[in-house]
Amino acid sequence: MPRGPFTWRTSSYASQEGGACVELADLHISVGVRDSTDPEGPVLRLSRPAVAALVSRIKAGELDR
Asked: The whole model's pTM is what?
């Protein structure tokens, strides 16, 4: 996974104190997902449709415990 000059973003709802969040980056063909507490750690590459479906399910509360 290239570490290139990608812009990693967190949710506007994320804590500014560096709490545990996920970060997303546009990797051109796919979307990168990583742990904000470990920026040098592994990166998941998801298709754009997969990310859209995940965000939709999160917003709908389908993944709440």
From this structure: 0.75
